[in-house]
Write a structure and sequence with these properties.
By secondary structure, this protein is an alpha/beta fold. About 35% of the residues lie in helices and about 20% in strands. It contains 5 helices and 7 strands, in the order αβββαβαβαββα. The strands form 2 sheets. Strands 5-4-3-6-7 form a 5-stranded mixed beta sheet, with helices on one face. Strand 4 (about 80-85), helix 3 and strand 5 (about 105-110) form a beta-alpha-beta unit. It is globular. About 25% of the residues are buried.
Length: about 160
Amino acid sequence: MKLISYLLLILLFLIPIDSIYAETPPEFWIKNMEGKRFRSSKQNSPYVISFFFVNCLPCIKEIPMLHQFMSTNYPSIPVLFIDPIKSDSKKDIKKFSKTLKVPLSLFYKDSFGSISKKFFNKGKMYFPTIVGIKGGEYIFRYTKIDEKILAEIKSLL
């Protein structure tokens, strides 16, 4: 019995927690900055969500990187850049999109934070947070993007 406990403990440290979830992702719908609606319940293919806010320094670096990666490798997989911060206006997001040279159609304003609250435990939000969902299940969750994580995402999508 002790051996099994030790093995389980070792496995816990070897498996990346960021990519495994027991719970089911929440269903939601949201309109992008151009008015097009995204419904998670109608999504049969994988999709990626990136939570950000306009003054998040890591987000400023990572959103263009994630956009480039996804548009090059997975152009048919939807990417949603969702801003749940009440003080960020639609005008701020439009300027942010233009500055980063990422299409405005990929940006969404979660004005009341109702969608983002469903994805974070106990209301603690971390920016950026990048989530991959496929077939009603989480396939990854990261709080940063770098070349190593992009390679992991590539293997999971």
